[in-house]
Design brief:
40% of the residues lie in helices and 12% in strands. The chain has 129 residues and is α+β, with helices and mostly antiparallel strands. It folds into 2 domains: 1-31, MutS, DNA mismatch repair protein, domain I; 35-127, Alpha-Beta Plaits. The strands form 2 sheets. It has a two-stranded antiparallel sheet. A two-stranded parallel sheet has the order 3-4.
Length: 129
């Protein structure tokens, strides 16, 4: 299960028991999951990723680490690659995406959470102690 951003403002989180979510947000609308559609979208997004790099480490249906260190796209700029991937996801699937760009995975994950939804945040190597 997941929670959209308006529900999150009430404290509802992914994987939260339904009863707890309804206590936090009594007017919550519950929708049935559409796992086949999610899996199809996830596969399409991974195919988009593969246009830029073969170094893809999937974490879940909606998260992955991409190593674009050796990519020739966008003049090798990870920031521009992330922008282009996000735009391509929107153009092809009408879905928004957030991205974090950083020299290490741990910081990329933190960066990806900094500008949600539909944003991007960059931590440069110079900003890493």
């Amino acid at each position: 299960s997941t929670a959209n951003y308006p529900a999150r403002k009430f404290g509802v989180r992914s994987a939260m028991p339904t009863g707890m979510a309804l206590k936090l947000c009594p007017h919550l609308t519950l929708l049935p999951g559409r796992f086949d559609a999610y899996k199809e979208a996830s596969n399409h997004i991974r195919e988009i990723f593969s246009r830029y790099t073969s170094r893809i480490e999937p974490l879940s249906l909606d998260e992955a680490y991409l190593d674009v260190t050796d990519s020739v796209y966008c003049h090798g700029s990870a920031t521009l690659i992330a922008q282009e991937i996000r735009q391509t996801i929107f153009n092809e699937l009408q879905l928004t995406a957030s991205a974090g760009v950083a020299p290490v995975k741990f910081l990329a994950k933190i960066a990806s959470d900094m500008n949600k939804p539909n944003g991007q945040f960059v931590i440069t190597p110079a900003e890493v102690p």
